Each structure stands twice: as structure tokens, then as C-alpha cells.
Amino acid sequence: MNSERVQNLFSTQIFFMKLFGNISPKIENFLPPAFRNVGIVATKLLCAFRVFLTLHIVILFVATAFDSFYYGKLADFTDALVMLIIYSFATFACLYWIVFSNNLQSFFDDVNKHYQYLSKPGLTYVNAYSPYIIAKKMTIYWLCACIAGVVFWALSPLMLRRRILAVKCWYPFDINEGYTFEILFSIQFLAQCQMGATFGNGSAMYVSCILIMLGQFDILFCSLKNIQSHSEILAGKSLQKIR
């Protein structure tokens, strides 16, 4: 059965997490040994930039919330507070995955090592390939839906031909001077993609773990039912006689 084992049950989830910077991509592994240090620095800068995208929005929404509260704008205050909570959690999640990515990889390695694909031989038989396939497809569809949602939201001002930022928050300068608006719009676009990918990757990883573990419970249940018949098979009896 070793030839039928999947090398990495979480390959799709890890790919998306590395793609959106939730896990360190380790650029140094793709460069020649002479450029290893350059790759390490580039990886750290990329991770820092990913965190900055959502963190700077958090800081701006803190200022927006205080400003709205001071002037008694309740609707603007509640909107800023909601967005502050959303981006704060996205920043925390992004930092958490980057810092503890090695622990997450150790968890994946442990699951891949001990994962059982087939139940013990007996009167009944099940395999646990379906949960892996379902988890893989769910991750792809869910991440595409999350990214599509935030992209359409971010580009809605362009579609409406309105010169406004998708994320309405306070800035300490005039956003319409020179190319300031275009730069801020691009940064906000990346920040929204980062936020959507962080939430999407986290939920997809959680559901994938649940699906894969449920497959193991199915294997366990079937194997427990087959204890007697499996022992008789090991003793030399044929399956026809057991039935």
C-alpha cells in the first residue's frame, strides 16, 4: 500500500498559504547556495510586507474610529470598529502562521506519517482517499471564492467609475495629490487580497483537518468491526469460510 500513499495530504493547502504569504515561502530554497543569504533576507522582507499590508489598515482604522467618535458620527464609528476587528484578526492570523509555520509543518508531517488509507481486511472494507479528495477540492473552490469576493469589492469603485478608495479610512494627507490615490488604491487592493486569503486559508485548513480526521474515524470504525474476522484471516481461514 505504500505506493498508493499520498505524499502530502495538505499539499494544496500549503501551496495557497505560501502563495499568499501566510507561511514563509523560503525563497532561499529556490536559489543557488551562493545566494542563500539573499534569499533569507528576501523571505523576511516579503513576510514583513505581508504583515504590513493589513497592519497599516488597522492603525488607520484606529484613527478613523477615534475621529468618528469624537465628532459623534455613530455610523462611521461602528463601520470603522467592524473593519478594525476584521483587519486586526487578519493581522494576528498572518503573524501567527508565519511565526508558528514550523509547528504547523510538524503537524502535517505527523498526520502524513500515521494516516491510514485502508481498513483492516475483513467482512467490510473502506478507504480514506475520498476525504483527501474532498478536502482538496473544497480548498480550491473556497479560496477562489474568497479571493474573487475581495477582488470584486476592491475593484467596485473602478467599475462604478468613482475616484474613491474601497476601504474608507482616515489618512493624514490628501489622497488626491499626484499619484497618491493610485498608490493607496494598489496597497489597499493588496491588503484586501491578503485579508481574504488569510481568512480563507485559515478556514480551509480547519475544515480540511476535520474532513481528513473523519476519514480516520471511518477507518477505525470499520477496522473495529473487522477485529474478529481479521484475526481469523491471519489464522489462515479464507474469507469465504468466515462469511
Description:
The protein is mainly α. The chain has one domain. It is 71% helix and 0% strand. It has 8 helices and no strands. The chain is elongated and about 85 Å long. The two termini are 25 Å apart. The mean pLDDT is 84.
Structure summary:
With 243 residues, this protein is mainly α. 71% of the residues lie in helices and 0% in strands.
Name some characteristics of this structure.
243 residues; 0% strand; mainly alpha
Give the CA-based shape.
elongated
N-to-C SSE string, H for helix and E for strand: HHHHHHHH
Provide the low-confidence segments as ranges: none
Approximately what portion of the residues adopt beta-strand conformation? Answer: under 5%
Query: What number of domains?
Result: 1
Query: How many helices in DSSP terms?
Result: 8
Structural class: mainly alpha
